[in-house]
């Protein structure tokens, strides 16, 4: 079941349901492009039509941010739970460790990529690393990278490249890569590699992961969060007013 939030169709899945859909796609060799949205992504999709098109072309769109889940409740179409991109990645690795899935890692710096490989080998020894490649490449190199991923016969491709380049790469080369499951994981590689510390669980439950990140990198992130969080609140206010207007109009007519 999907709900519509800010014009974005979001799958109302629990984590276990999302993982089950991933597993089914791998078994049937169907392509499943996973997209995630948080407050910043919602704002950027409204500002960047190309990013919006790429996200909306995803086969499964999940609520990555707690703010998106809260908004769904305020707007009367509550999502089951938050399915964060990094948590879904770890759950896929967990199941892949049981079933011997082949996984390809694309993105981040070479140093981070190497650390991600070590992390997987230490924690999920039965996951087959089909390949890895850092995220620094030119547009001219994209086709050869996509060919290499296709030749790896990966079951899952994790892409850790910044938006909208990430979404564009995934959309442009899906057929050539021919990977059943493609999941854009944002900064997840930095977290598992230990470069960025993830917020404690309580902060996550309170929807304050963004603030935890901001405290770690204030100089780089303060402007981004100020703008995107403010715009997201504005979009939510407009949506709430629009939802209330029909009720108000009906009451006026009755009186």
List keywords for this structure.
255 residues; alpha/beta; two-stranded antiparallel ribbon; 12 helices; 15% strand; globular
> In total, how many beta strands?
8
Shape: globular
Strand order of the largest sheet: 4-3-8-7-5-6
Q: What number is the mean pLDDT? A: 89
Oligomeric description of these chains: single chain
Helix content: 55-70%
End-to-end Cα distance: 37 Å
- The percent range for strand residues is 15-25%
Task: Report on the biggest sheet.
Answer: 6 strands, parallel
One letter per element, helices H and strands E, the order comes to EEHEHHEHHEHEHEHEHHHH
Question: Which secondary-structure class do the elements indicate?
Answer: alpha/beta
Account of the protein in words:
This protein has 255 residues and is of the alpha/beta class. It contains 12 helices and 8 strands. The protein has helices at 15-28, 39-47, 49-56, 66-74, 85-99, 110-123, 142-151, 165-177, 188-192, 201-205, 209-216, 218-254, and strands spanning 2-5, 8-11, 32-37, 60-63, 102-107, 128-133, 156-160, 181-184. The strands form 2 sheets. The chain has a 6-stranded parallel β-sheet, with helices on both faces. A two-stranded antiparallel sheet has the order 1-2. Strand 1 and strand 2 form a beta hairpin. Helix 1 packs across helix 5 (85-99), helix 7 (142-151) crosses helix 8 and helix 11 runs antiparallel to helix 12 (218-254). It is globular and about 55 Å long. The model has no long low-confidence stretch (mean pLDDT 89).
């Amino acid at each position: 079941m999907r709900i519509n939030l800010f014009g974005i169709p979001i799958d109302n899945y629990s984590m276990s349901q999302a993982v089950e859909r991933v597993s089914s796609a791998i078994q049937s060799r169907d392509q499943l492009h996973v997209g995630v949205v948080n407050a910043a992504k919602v704002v950027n999709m409204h500002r960047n039509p190309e990013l919006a098109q790429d996200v909306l072309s995803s086969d499964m769109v999940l609520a990555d941010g707690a703010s998106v889940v809260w908004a769904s409740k305020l707007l009367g179409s509550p999502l089951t739970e938050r399915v964060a991109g990094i948590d879904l990645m770890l759950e896929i690795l967990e199941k892949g460790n049981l079933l011997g899935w082949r996984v390809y890692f694309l993105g981040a710096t070479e140093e981070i990529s190497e650390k991600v490989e070590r992390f997987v080998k230490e924690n999920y020894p039965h996951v087959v690393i089909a390949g890895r490649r850092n995220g620094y490449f030119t547009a001219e190199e994209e086709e050869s990278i996509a060919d290499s991923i296709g030749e790896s016969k990966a079951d899952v491709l994790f892409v850790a490249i910044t938006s909208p380049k990430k979404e564009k790469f995934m959309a442009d080369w899906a057929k050539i890569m021919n990977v059943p499951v493609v999941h854009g994981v944002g900064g997840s590689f930095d977290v598992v590699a230990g470069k960025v510390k993830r917020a404690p669980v309580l902060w996550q439950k309170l929807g304050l992961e963004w603030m935890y990140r901001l405290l770690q990198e204030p100089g780089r992130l303060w402007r981004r969060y100020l703008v995107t969080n403010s715009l997201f609140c504005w979009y939510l206010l407009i949506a709430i007013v629009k939802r209330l207007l029909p009720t108000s109009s009906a009451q006026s007519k009755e009186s």
